[in-house]
Amino acid sequence: MYYVYILASRRHGTLYIGVTNSVQKRLEEHKAGNGSSFVKTYGVYRLVHVESYQRAEDAITREKQLKKWKRDWKIEMIERENPEWRDLSDLLV
Known about the structure:
By secondary structure, the protein is of the alpha+beta class. The protein has one domain: GIY-YIG endonuclease (3-Layer(aba) Sandwich). The protein has four helices and three strands. A three-stranded antiparallel β-sheet has the order 2-1-3. A hairpin with a 6-residue loop joins β1 and β2. It is globular.
C-alpha cells in the first residue's frame, strides 16, 4: 500500500503533503528530524489526513494534485473527515 498524508502544525496552521509506503515510519523520520527540512523548520508533525492507494503511481498523482489545490480546498477536505484536526497518528498500527 501507498499513502498520501497531510501534516499540520496546528488547526488551520502550516500544511505539508507527502507520499510514503509506511506512514508510521515516515512520521518517525519526520519527528527525528530526518524527514523533510520543511517539516522540521515549521514544526509540522500532526497527522490530519491519510489516503491509501494500491499503486505508487496513483498515490504520487494524488499527492501532486493536492499540492496544486488552493489552501481553502485542503482545509475543507481535512475538516470534512477530521473536523477537530485531531492527530491521527495514534490510529496507526
